[in-house]
Design goal:
Layout (H helix, E strand, L loop, with lengths): L1 E4 L6 H6 L1 E8 L3 E9 L5 E10 L7 H20 L6 E6 L1 E3 L5 E5 L4 E5 L1 H6 L5 E5 H10 L6 E5 L12 E6 L3 E8 L2 E3 L15 H13 L1 H7 L5 H4 L2 H12 L9 H9 L5 H10 L3 H25 L3 E4 L2 H5 L1 H11 L7 H6 L2 E4 L4 H12 L3
Parallel strand pairs: 2-5, 5-9, 11-14, 14-15
Antiparallel strand pairs: 1-4, 2-3, 3-4, 6-7, 7-8, 10-15, 11-12, 12-13
Helix pairs in contact: 4-15, 5-8, 8-11, 10-11, 11-13
């Protein structure tokens, strides 16, 4: 784990009497943590941050997460003489139990159920609260500075920022969806797992669906071949779409070296490669991100028409780093093909340019709750 120290030292009084918080954002690819202090005058002081890899296999999820936390706690003891943490708030990619001590996480080939409270107490954490990862991101929107919101769509005037009633969409290694219904009402969501709507008249969309069937045997066995937005509007989905288009007749003229790079890429390096090629002008890769924006608009349509938010917020590293490639097609498709397109055409749409949104949200919640 890579650890960054934010403060040289803390006062002996704060070391002995202050509160210490752990915030975490643990995905299926990367994990990030932060230890902060609440000083005697109630100021929140970031002390240490850590980032590392998460587990790609279900059985390794808990051991890898605990190893990352141990490394950060060891650094906190050495740097600041901190032996215990008052509370931890950790976002994980799955369904959270009512007592917020355990979670159910869905992998392609397995479902794991983890109880984390006792494991963290053994490491010196007195109190644990688990969040769905996009529940943390939704709190992160509420904790954000108004200057972090970039208006990208909708004809209605800006309302109060941060908004109170909004939908959050954050593509990453999967598609995360968050819902805020009021100032303090956050709804955990697995909305990214909605089944994908494919336009059967569109050859490219149909080709992606057929490739999903042919390549992902484990997924086909689990879901009888259904394709969800969680599969396509995400980092691995970018690679899936590119590898599909490479095989289409209209792209056979693509440089064979580039075609080979795309065909042999993995879900870890493929999205970065395709983004690089798109920004260099490669038409196939630019089309991949147009398809990404189109599919993202469709799933957001569904969530917005169920919840009728006052605003829509997009975030996450993929959208932030590829906004010129994704957002024009997203905004164009958001109000299309549905009865209430006028509502979505007016809906204020924002990009929040904060790559630590989930982690900031977990820190915000940890600071708000009582020990």
């Amino acid at each position: 784990m890579k650890i960054e120290k934010h403060l040289k030292e803390i006062s002996p009084t704060d070391a002995q009497q202050g509160e210490f918080l752990l915030a975490g954002d643990v995905g299926k690819t990367n994990a990030r943590f932060r230890i902060s202090a609440v000083s005697q005058d109630k100021k929140l002081i970031p002390l240490l941050s850590g980032s590392g890899s998460s587990a790609t296999r279900a059985e390794a999820f808990l051991p890898v997460m605990l190893d990352n936390i141990k490394a950060l706690l060891a650094a906190a003891r050495e740097a600041y003489r901190i032996c215990e943490l008052d509370r931890a708030v950790i976002g994980v990619p799955g369904k959270i139990s009512k007592d917020r001590q355990s979670c159910t996480i869905f992998y392609l080939d397995a479902i794991i159920r983890l109880s984390l409270g006792s494991a963290l107490r053994e490491l010196g954490v007195r109190k644990l609260l688990l969040l769905n990862d996009l529940e943390g991101g939704t709190w992160g929107v509420k904790a954000s500075n108004v200057r972090q919101f970039k208006r990208i769509g909708g004809s209605s005037p800006d309302g109060y920022l941060p908004p109170e009633r909004f939908v959050l969409g954050m593509p990453g290694s999967g598609l995360g969806m968050g819902l805020s219904l009021d100032q303090d009402i956050i709804i955990p969501s697995e909305g990214g797992n909605i089944l994908t709507m494919i336009d059967p008249r569109d050859k490219e969309e149909r080709g992606i669906w057929e490739m999903f069937h042919s390549r992902f045997t484990a997924v086909r066995d689990k879901r009888e071949g259904y394709l969800t937005y969680n599969d396509i509007t995400c980092g691995p989905g970018i690679l899936l779409a590119a590898q599909c288009l490479v095989e289409q007749p209209e792209y056979r003229g693509i440089d064979r070296t580039i075609a080979g790079q795309i065909s042999s890429a993995t879900k870890y390096d493929g999205p970065v490669l395709i983004s690089k090629l798109a920004y260099e002008g490669n038409e196939l890769c630019k089309q991949v991100f147009k398809l990404f924006g189109r599919f993202l608009a469709r799933v957001v349509q569904s969530i917005c028409l169920v919840t009728l938010p006052e605003a829509l917020v997009l975030g996450g590293r993929i959208v932030i780093e590829n906004q010129e490639l994704i957002l024009p097609e997203f905004i164009r498709n958001l109000p299309r093909h549905i009865a209430h397109g006028e509502y979505l055409e007016k809906l204020p749409v924002y990009l929040i340019e904060n790559k630590d949104l989930n982690l900031d949200g977990a820190t915000y919640v940890a600071a708000r709750i009582n020990s």
